[in-house]
Design a protein that fits this description.
This protein is mainly alpha-helical and 336 residues long. It folds into two domains: 207 residues, no CATH class; 100 residues. The chain is built from twelve helices and no strands. The protein is elongated. The protein starts with 6 loop residues before the first helix and ends with a helix. The mean pLDDT is 82.
């Protein structure tokens, strides 16, 4: 008979830890809507993995223990990680903090479906087993996908292009942890205790480091953007290094394109300063209201990028710094 009273305890720990992560986010990088969307993706990933695993188990000559140690972790972690891949590639996360929260949200959604199915269908499952699955399996699912987000986001900051070299190592780590957990090399109680202690500790340490990086990025970036905007708006830019740099393109590009390059620099600096100001206000506990002009500015920014073309954008790369975090802050403003 299914243990219906054990259902809540099988998901309670992972839900509580997810809520704790959201509250730890002092800059409020992740909205409730984003958390729920990620969790819903985790629910869908669990359903897809159940379908794939059930089909493969009937097709390959593997016993269930062997399959659960090697095949299932690869399939499940890849499915969960696919949403993190999408978020990072589309510049919807900028720091390890938001990558970890959204990763854990996906894993939490996955764990809810898996544990509810396990507790609701397995005959003779005890309350203790539900407890161990809640503190062990569920937290493991959330923790491994959070680690995918942390590792992948960290690697993405080192490369201009985001590809397999960013995501493969992150997913491989998650698969290894999942596989080791399923090997049951220690007693289930010790395994659950280890998961509850180690994975949250790693995530919290990543949180601290990420928030330090975020504070440094805001400080340095704010000063740089402010200096850029001051140079452009006060006039006399032709006497600066930036002005001389732009003049070097006067013969290769039409005068209108050079003017658009200058407008692109100004608008990018304005939006960058505004985004960092929003983050500082959030950290201080102030609510930020949507700026009705943001959409128009982002449309103008896109127009200017097309106007100057790929050559112009590449020429401005030393000043625009089109890295993951800079693109993420523009996406953050676009969500307002």
């Amino acid at each position: 008979m299914a243990n219906l009273p054990g259902l809540p305890i099988s998901v309670f720990p992972v839900v509580v830890f997810l809520i704790s992560l959201v509250f730890l986010d002092s800059y409020k990088l992740v909205s409730l809507r984003a958390v729920l969307t990620a969790a819903l993706f985790g629910l869908a990933a669990a359903a897809v993995s159940f379908f794939i695993n059930s089909r493969l188990l009937g097709a390959v000559p593997w016993e269930l223990p062997l399959y659960s140690r090697y095949a299932a972790p690869l399939i499940e972690e890849a499915l969960k990680a696919s949403y993190i891949v999408y978020l990072i590639r589309s510049k919807r996360v900028g720091f390890m903090v938001d990558a970890a929260i959204l990763g854990f949200s996906v894993g939490a959604g996955f764990a809810v479906v898996e544990n509810f199915y396990y507790a609701g269908t397995c005959v003779g499952i005890s309350f203790v087993t539900c407890l161990l699955r809640g503190f062990g399996t569920a937290v493991m699912h959330g923790g491994t996908t959070a680690l995918v987000g942390i590792v992948a986001q960290s690697l993405s900051e080192r490369y201009v292009s985001i590809g397999p070299k960013v995501f493969v190592p992150a997913i491989a780590i998650a698969c290894a942890i999942h596989s080791l957990f399923n090997h049951m090399v220690v007693a289930p109680v010790l395994s659950a205790v280890g998961i509850v202690i180690i994975l949250p500790l790693v995530i919290v340490l990543a949180f601290r480091q990420s928030e330090k990086n975020l504070r440094d990025w805001i400080g340095v970036g704010f000063d740089t953007d402010a200096d850029m905007l001051d140079i452009i708006t006060r006039g006399g830019i032709s006497k600066t290094g930036i002005g001389r740099y732009l003049e070097s393109f006067a013969e290769a590009l039409p005068p209108a394109a050079v003017a658009d390059m200058l407008c692109l620099l100004r608008l990018h600096a304005e939006l960058s300063i505004q985004a960092k100001g929003v983050l500082l206000m959030r950290e201080a506990g102030f609510e930020t209201k949507p700026d009705p002009e943001i959409r128009e500015k982002l449309v103008e920014l896109e127009f200017l990028e097309k106007s100057v073309g790929k050559t112009g954008v590449r020429a401005l790369a030393p000043f625009l710094h089109w890295r993951t975090r800079d693109l993420w802050q523009l996406h953050m403003l676009g969500k307002k």
